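Late entry, evening session. Most of the bench is empty. Finally got around to the prediction I had been postponing all week. Sequence below, unchanged from the version circulated by S.P.
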Amino acid sequence: MLKHKGFPGRFPGTDFQFTIRRGNPRGITKLIQRERFADRRPADRRADAAFLACLWDYFKNEPFERGNLDAGRLSWLFGREVIAAQDPFDPESYEALLVIDEDRARASFPDAFDGTWVA
């Protein structure tokens, strides 16, 4: 599992996790597209924006390996702002390649790109 050195481990001041320390010995957590409902808590929306901002700062619009990025946090963006960069795509692989769909990400989280996401 690739560890993204320098990538924030969590959303500052919260328990919202951005990375994992080690692979899951019982199996890799599958990436899924989670439904984001309009009534999500503001803290959850800020964490999504912060995570996307960190992804953008770290990778820009280049394909990146899933590595130690938290599957739960990625799943809130997967299939919309973060998409598969390879075909076939294995959602249960730490080596799976992803990429940010910049147009959709900017439309969904404009504050993630202008530096105002920090709460």
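Two things to note before I forget:
The chain is about 30% helix and 10% strand.
Residues 64 and 98 are 5 Å apart (CA to CA).
Will write this up properly tomorrow.
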